[in-house]
Design a protein that fits this description.
Elements: H1 25-44, H2 51-62, H3 68-75, H4 79-91, E1 95-99, E2 107-111, H5 113-133, H6 139-157
Antiparallel strand pairs: 1-2
Helix pairs in contact: 1-5, 2-3, 2-5, 3-4
Length: 163
């Protein structure tokens, strides 16, 4: 007997038993990641921002004062790439940096008024894209999926790398 819904292929279906048929969890997340990056890139292009720049601006807006190294880790880019990105965003007037109280060589980043305004416009476009992405997913399930994905990420961070 076939439990798949109309239009669903074998590769797209997941059976809830101990022997999964269909894609692995890592494949599904990787497919979502690639699709999401492509869609975010298209949504952000009119604002002249990359996905990494948008991520950095979003992080800074939630809690300013990150160092370049902290931003790099949270934005999934190298410290060198983040340094260039922060310099570019600063030159565009979207953020500013000030010396840290605790480290003379470290500079903390903060959004400018122009940076906050641009981020707000980007967020409207990203919200629309996310709404389209989550079409058909009930609101309560959305929260559960987010929590499951974040828990999976935390679990994976705790797994030691093979030697």
């Amino acid at each position: 007997m076939n439990d798949r819904t109309a239009g669903e292929t074998h590769a797209d279906s997941v059976q809830e038993d101990e022997h999964l048929e269909g894609p692995r969890f890592s494949y599904a997340v990787g497919t979502l990641d690639r699709s999401l990056r492509r869609s975010l890139g298209a949504v952000l292009r009119p604002f002249e921002l990359t996905v990494a720049e948008y991520t950095a601006l979003s992080l800074i807006s939630r809690r300013g004062g990150y160092s370049n190294a902290q931003l790099a880790r949270r934005s999934f880019v190298s410290p060198q790439a983040m340094h260039e990105m922060v310099s570019s965003l600063e030159n565009r007037g979207l953020l500013d940096r000030e010396p840290s109280d605790s480290h003379r060589s470290m500079r903390r980043t903060h959004l400018t008024g122009e940076g906050r305004e641009l981020l707000e416009r980007c967020n409207v476009a990203v919200d629309e894209m996310e709404e389209a992405m989550l079409e058909g997913v009930p609101p309560g399930t959305r929260v559960e999926v987010i929590n499951l994905l974040l828990q999976s990420a935390r679990n994976l961070r705790d797994v030691p790398a093979p030697e």
